[in-house]
Design brief:
The protein is α/β, with parallel strands linked by helices. The chain has one domain: Class I glutamine amidotransferase (GATase) domain (Rossmann fold, 3-Layer(aba) Sandwich). Helix content is about 35%, strand content about 25%. The chain has helices at about 15-25, 75-80, 80-95, 105-110, 155-165, 170-175, and strands spanning about 1-5, 30-35, 40, 50, 55, 65-70, 95-100, 120, 135, 140, 145-150. Strands 6-7-11-10 form a four-stranded mixed β-sheet, with helices on both faces. The protein has a three-stranded parallel β-sheet with strand order 1-2-5, with helices on one face. Strands 3-4 form a two-stranded antiparallel ribbon. Strand 3 and strand 4 (about 50) form a beta hairpin. The two termini are about 25 Å apart.
Length: about 180
Amino acid sequence: MKIMIPLAVGFEETEAITIIDLFRRAQIEVVTFSLSKEKLVKGSHNIFVQTDLVINEVQKEDFDGIVLPGGMPGSAHLRDCDEVIDFINYFNSKKLLVAAICAAPIALDKAGILKGVSACCYPGVESQLTDAIISNDNVCVDGYIITAKGLAFAIEFSLEIIRFLVGDEVAEKISAGVLWT
């Protein structure tokens, strides 16, 4: 199992690191990549994170899904990146994991994959999800598309994705290990 996580300038650092950390605890291979030619990416709160790759090194066929951290302007950069939209559409066409948290579901909307799909996002961003069925849930699972409202739900979001990818037993073990429940 190998999941890609793009990091755009202005990404929400805690969301991204929480997702990466919990996936690695679950033995899910995670590869981060920058949207630019630089591996060092500045988050929305001026924390720099070094990615594994840059976007032109990514081969989508090597992955089993994509997870988009939120934050602004990071989410807008993801939405406006043609390669990210291509990745989203590729995974959607294969019915593989497509997940986004906070404002990042705007990229899923731009890709056109939310028509008739239940999704949630950061409050106030709902108007930008033109095709989605807006859910009031903190984390929303609709098949292989998983969304969440924001930072406060990053652990729950990550655990739902782990549950989807590798099962309840692993998700419960990780949950117990981080004292989530």
